[in-house]
């Protein structure tokens, strides 16, 4: 069970600031269990966003959003609604956001913070995809996690050790920031990198040990 | 105001040098290296556990330079300290007379000699610049008021010959927004690609000090090409060094360094010479590069 909490609505509206239309996705797996992204929460979110003046071009519920092929298959059925939306909002764990980003060439906003894996790391097993940091930054990074995939967990761009798309720690490790920049370039959203991302709140991460605020 | 800041403000072409603290407590040789730079450079960088190798800290040797009336540039990386330690070391540095700070990410611990260390990177170089700017403004990162505020001259680094270049430029802009008042670059051996970088960043009005590492041998050049991101020593230079007899290498190092500096000079606001122990060559390099 991956434990998630919905991000505050103000934060989500800030993410959606430049956009009028959005496609909404929920997860029938852990997020439904946490009451953060099941059927009811998707309906509630739809209503709250519509009240805030957004157009919801469609919604979809996926059994396990950590299953990349299932996400791909399910979203294919919603192709028109997704294409007519400016972005997607995913109410699920960080893995679900990344799985969605990997199959849709649009910005996928994270609707939740992943606060705990509870011993399970989702179904997408290619590599470390979520560090359960509790303060999801996928919004700024094109759906590629710099906490899980940058050796230095950098939030504001690559270090000087990035070379030809590889990390300084090993030529076998891709530079996460290179991937992020390629992805945002493809989406025409390099502007997402202009803002200085604030220092992270590590007190909500399990790395704070027993003192974690959770 | 620091001498470095005054020099850059006045539009003078600046020369800075660098020393690396030793692994162990015998700091005399390192201080002798610094002494050789007296009167030659406006400020001396002191590296912060360069290459992630454990050694004497930058803060201690910067203080020693201040005591000797040599102006240090305090290199500060995000690798080993969290935000409490970084801010505290900045306040300490000010009380010790240090005025210039160069904010860096820091090489990853796996590249150094304590490979099992826990990397810190609590904040990144952009956020560190911002934190130091906050301190300059009289508040810490969490907004608490300081009893007496510093007034650091803040610098940052950029890799002008990186492939691809765009990510470096995006981050450079953020560093400027976060308070960087000067840039020092990774070592440059290709004036043409440096010129491309300077053209692309023309709209940024922050002074750029081009870095140059004194080439000691062909083997060293090859090592840097293979192991240091963003450094590319062209094959002609490697060959030039390889074809030099070992007793003539110092002379050749002076020739090459001075030649590159002459090519870089019209493009930027200064050079940062990293002699890596060959500090006694600095006067000759400056003379041959016609920087006097």
What do these coordinates show?
- The complex is a heterodimer of chains A (214) and B (292).
- The longest helix of chain A has 13 residues, at 39-51.
- Chain A has helices at residues 9-15, 30-33, 39-51, 68-76, 79-83, 94-103, 146-149, 176-186; strands at 3-6, 21-27, 55-62, 87-91, 108-110, 112-116, 166-167, 170-174.
- Chain A is built from 8 helices and 8 strands; from the N terminus they run E-H-E-H-H-E-H-H-E-H-E-E-H-E-E-H.
- Chain A has a domain at 3-141: Diphthamide synthesis DPH1/DPH2 domain 3 (Rossmann fold, 3-Layer(aba) Sandwich), CATH 3.40.50.
- By secondary structure, chain B is an alpha/beta fold.
- Chain B has one domain (3-288): Alpha-Beta Barrel (TIM Barrel).
- Chain B is built from 11 helices and 8 strands.
- An 8-stranded parallel beta barrel of chain B has the order 1-2-3-4-5-6-7-8, surrounded by 7 helices.
- In chain B, helix 3 links the parallel strand 2 (43-46) and strand 3 (72-77).
- Chain B is globular and about 60 Å long.
- Classes of the chains: A alpha/beta (214), B alpha/beta (292).
List keywords for this structure.
heterodimer; A: 214 residues; alpha/beta; Rossmann fold; 4-stranded parallel beta sheet; two-stranded antiparallel sheet; 8 helices; globular; B: 292 residues; TIM Barrel; 39% helix
What count of structural domains of chain B?
A: 1
Would you tell me the overall average pLDDT of chain A? 91
What name does the CATH topology of chain B carry?
Answer: TIM Barrel
Q: What do we call the CATH homologous superfamily of the domain at 3-141 in chain A?
A: Diphthamide synthesis DPH1/DPH2 domain 3
- Beta content of chain B comes to 15-25%
Give the H and E element order of chain B: HEHEHEHEHEHEHEHHHEH
Give the CA-CA distance, first to last residue of chain B: 23 Å
Structure summary, number of beta strands of chain B: 8
The biggest sheet of chain B, with number of strands, parallel, antiparallel or mixed sense and barrel status, is: 8 strands, parallel, barrel
Mass-distribution shape of chain B? globular
Any idea what the radius of gyration of chain A is? 16 Å
- Residue stretches of chain B low in confidence (pLDDT < 50, at least 5 long) are none
Q: What is the overall number of helices of chain A? A: 8
According to CATH, what is the class of chain B? Alpha Beta
Described by the principal axes of the CA atoms, the overall outline of chain A is: globular
CATH topology of the domain at 3-141 in chain A: Rossmann fold
Rg of chain B, rounded, reads 18 Å
Strand order in the sheet with the most strands of chain B: 1-2-3-4-5-6-7-8
Q: State the total count of DSSP E strands of chain A.
A: 8
């Amino acid at each position: 069970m991956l434990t998630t909490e919905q991000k505050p609505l103000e934060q989500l509206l800030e993410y959606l600031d430049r956009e009028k239309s959005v496609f909404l996705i929920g997860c029938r797996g852990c997020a439904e269990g946490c009451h953060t992204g099941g059927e009811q929460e998707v309906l509630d979110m739809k209503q709250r966003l519509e009240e805030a003046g957004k157009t919801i071009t469609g919604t979809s519920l996926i059994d396990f959003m950590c299953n990349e092929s299932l996400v791909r298959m399910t979203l294919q059925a919603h192709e028109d609604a997704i294409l007519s939306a400016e972005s997607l909002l995913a109410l699920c764990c960080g893995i679900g956001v990344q799985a969605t980003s990997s199959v849709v060439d649009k910005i996928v906003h994270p609707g939740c913070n992943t606060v705990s894996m509870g011993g399970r790391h989702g179904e997408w097993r290619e590599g470390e995809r979520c560090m359960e940091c509790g303060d999801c930054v996928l919004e700024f990074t094109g759906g590629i996690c710099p906490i899980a995939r940058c050796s230095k967990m950098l939030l504001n761009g690559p270090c000087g050790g990035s070379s030809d798309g590889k990390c300084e720690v090993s030529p076998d490790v891709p530079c996460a920031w290179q991937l992020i920049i390629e992805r945002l370039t493809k989406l025409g959203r390099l502007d997402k990198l202009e803002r200085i991302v604030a220092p992270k709140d590590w007190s909500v991460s399990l790395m704070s040990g027993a003192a974690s605020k959770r | 105001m620091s001498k470095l800041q005054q020099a850059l403000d006045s539009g003078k072409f600046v020369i800075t040098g660098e020393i690396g603290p030793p692994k162990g407590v015998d700091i005399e040789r390192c201080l002798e290296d610094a002494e050789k730079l007296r009167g030659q450079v406006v400020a001396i960088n002191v590296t912060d556990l360069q290459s992630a190798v454990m050694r004497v800290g930058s803060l201690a040797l910067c203080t020693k330079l201040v005591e000797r009336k040599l102006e240090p540039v305090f290199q500060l990386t995000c690798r080993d300290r969290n935000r409490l330690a970084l801010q505290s070391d900045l306040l300490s540095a000010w009380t010790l007379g240090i005025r210039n700070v160069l904010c860096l990410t820091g090489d990853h611990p796996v590249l150094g000699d304590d490979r099992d260390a826990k990397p810190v990177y609590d904040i990144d170089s952009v956020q560190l610049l911002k934190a130091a700017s906050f301190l300059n403004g009289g508040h810490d990162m969490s907004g608490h008021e300081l009893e007496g505020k510093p007034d650091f001259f803040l610098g940052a680094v950029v890799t002008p010959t990186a492939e691809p270049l765009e990510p470096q430029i995006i981050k450079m802009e953020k560093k400027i927004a976060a308070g960087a008042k000067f840039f020092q670059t990774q070592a440059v051996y290709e004036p043409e690609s440096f010129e491309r970088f300077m053209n692309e960043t023309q709209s940024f009005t922050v002074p750029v000090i081009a870095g140059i590492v004194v080439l000691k041998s062909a083997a060293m050049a090859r090592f840097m090409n293979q192991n240091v991101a963003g450094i590319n020593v062209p094959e002609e230079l490697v060959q030039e060094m390889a074809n030099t007899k070992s007793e003539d290498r110092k002379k050749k190092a002076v020739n090459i360094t001075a030649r590159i500096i002459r090519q870089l000079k019209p493009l930027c606001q200064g050079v940062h010479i990293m002699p890596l122990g060959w500090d006694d060559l600095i006067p000759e390099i400056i003379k041959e590069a016609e920087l006097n």
